[in-house]
Amino acid sequence: MKVQRSSYKILSYKIKHSYDVEEFLSSYRYLLQKAIDIIWSNIEWIEKKQRNHYLIRNGKKFERKHYYVKRLIPLIPKSREFKRSLRNTLLENWDYASHYIDSAIKVAYSIINSWRRNYLRGRRGGNKPLVKRRFIRVKETLYVYRDGKIRVTVKPREFYLEFDLSKAWFKKRVEDYDLGELILKENELIITFRKPVKETRITEYIGWDLNKCSLDGFSPKYGWIKIDLRRLYHIHRVHEVKRKKVQSIASKKPSLRAIVSKQGRRERNRAKDSIHKLTTQLSMMFPNIVHGFEDLEKQRMYTKRKRHNRDIAKQNWKQIIQYMSYKARVKLVDPYNTSSTCPMCGGKVMKLRKGQIVKCRKCGLTLDRQLCGAINIYLRMCGFPQSPSTFYHVVIKRMIPWWKMRMKALEGVTTNGDEGGDKPPMNPGGGLSLMNPKAYIDLPIPM
Fold first, then answer.
1. Which residues contact 277 (CB under 8 A, 6 or more apart)?
2. Quick one: three-class SS letters along the chain?
3. What span, in angstroms and rounded, lies between the C-alpha atoms of 252 and 255?
């Protein structure tokens, strides 16, 4: 049993304002870009060998061929002397509070570090990051919170911004929270609240398999959990059709291009709202649990098929993982062959019923493809090997009491109402549905 150390629970809310801060935002964006330029010009590039591989077909199997390439690795300057020199340079001709210099340096390093991680993973090129959005991160030393009012310092003893939270609709929700950093935008202020979370004991793990229209989870404690994502896919599909109609008209009438961008904003907002509700429900239903997800990359999943690529582009897998990461504990696992490997012996599986059911070529284990992926993710995140004894003790043996309880409560009927062995449908009512894996696991050999 692992113990989760104390951390913070974060809440954020927006309030509108009518202050004219356009010049202030433009100056901060110029300052932030200047900080990135100076850091970028002092990056040291080191040449290093990197091992890559490609797949070649050998009969029915694929073999990996490895090769080495030389690559430039960036080393970001982080010494105290460099940061002190950077701060002094940015202070020249800066007309606002000096603490915004520290805020800009912190954000600049965050952007550069994010670029470096993506560059090393092959997601970004060697181009310098550019700041396009106008925003200001207001440190805790730049504001005062007293009597339900926030006073932000812009120019000391000259110009301040005041925001009244005494009548805010979220006042009761944040009574026990402390005020964190603020983000100032052109017509709104984003306010963050934080509260320390006490130590909790991690009692269980759930492995989640991300699919086109469903999210399938597996845990010996809860069994097979199936979440219907058809509503989320429907949101993208509806706005895709609407946007296609408007685009055909806007190509002849440029004044309608604003409607095209409006459809995109509505699509993002509706999808974001749906994912927030889903992840909140998951974190509440399964507390003190580590959620395992595949570390998927959409760029590697695209093929020459246009319809397949559009379906992949509609998925919100990364967003689901991102929202779950600050509502619960999340662990990423390697997605390689999670749905095409037998969880009992590690052999290759063949697809039946148009890919919905898989059967192991080596040991004969037959089970649902999505359940197969969820079990493999669970085993990988827990560090268990793929072997018959592990599969029996970790998966089958621990689930026997759960199966008996569920079958007794439902009088011998599976939780989704189907007969054993049938193709499991999506939950027609949406939301979460506990499935009975016994109806979809066939063990042809004795343990």
1. none
2. CEEECCEEEEEEEEEECCCCCHHHHHHHHHHHHHHHHHHHHCCEEEEEEEEEEEEEEECCEEEEEEEEEEEEEEECCCCHHHHHHHHHHHHCCCCCCCHHHHHHHHHHHHHHHHHHHHHHCCCCCCCCCCCCCCCEEECHHHEEEECCEEEEEEECCCEEEEEECCCCCCCHHHCCCEEEEEEECCCEEEEEEEEEECCEEECEEEEEEECCCEEEEEECCCEEEEEECHHHHHHHHHHHHHHHHHHHHHCCCHHHHHHHHHHHHHHHHHHHHHHHHHHHHHHHHCCCEEEEEECCCHHHCCCCCHHHHHHHHCCCHHHHHHHHHCCCEEEEECCCCCCCECCCCCCEEEEECCCCEEEECCCCCEEEHHHHHHHHHHHHHHCCCCCHHHHHHHHHHHHHHHHHHHHHHCCCCCCCCCCCCCCCCCCCCCEEEEECHHHHEECCCCC
3. 9
Task: Give me the residue label for tokens 């397949």.
Answer: 308
Residue 409, pLDDT above cutoff 80: no
Q: Are 233 and 314 in contact (CB under 8 A)?
A: yes
d(CA 39, CA 35): 6
**Predicted confidence (pLDDT) per residue in 36-76, tens digit:** 999 999 999 998 887 877 778 787 677 888 888 888 899 99
The two three-digit tokens of residue 368, written as one number: 């649902």
Q: Classify strands 289-294 and 329-333 as parallel, antiparallel or unpaired.
A: parallel
Domain positions in the chain are 9-197, 203-442
Average pLDDT in the chain: 83
pLDDT tens track for 154-202: 999 999 999 999 889 999 989 889 999 999 999 999 999 998 877 667 7
Residue 286 vs residue 412, higher pLDDT:
286
Q: Are 190 and 401 in contact (CB under 8 A)?
A: no
Q: pTM of the full predicted structure?
A: 0.69
pLDDT at 307: 85
C-alpha 223/C-alpha 84 separation (Å) is 56
Q: State yes or no: pLDDT of 94 exceeds 80.
A: yes
Token code pair at residue 344? 């009992």
CA 9 remoteness from chain centre:
17
Confidence of residue 412 (pLDDT cuts 50, 70, 90): very low
Nearest to 369 by CA among 338, 403, 328, 323: 338
Identity of the residue numbered 232 = L
Instruction: Confirm if 359 and 350 have CB atoms less than 8 A apart.
Output: yes
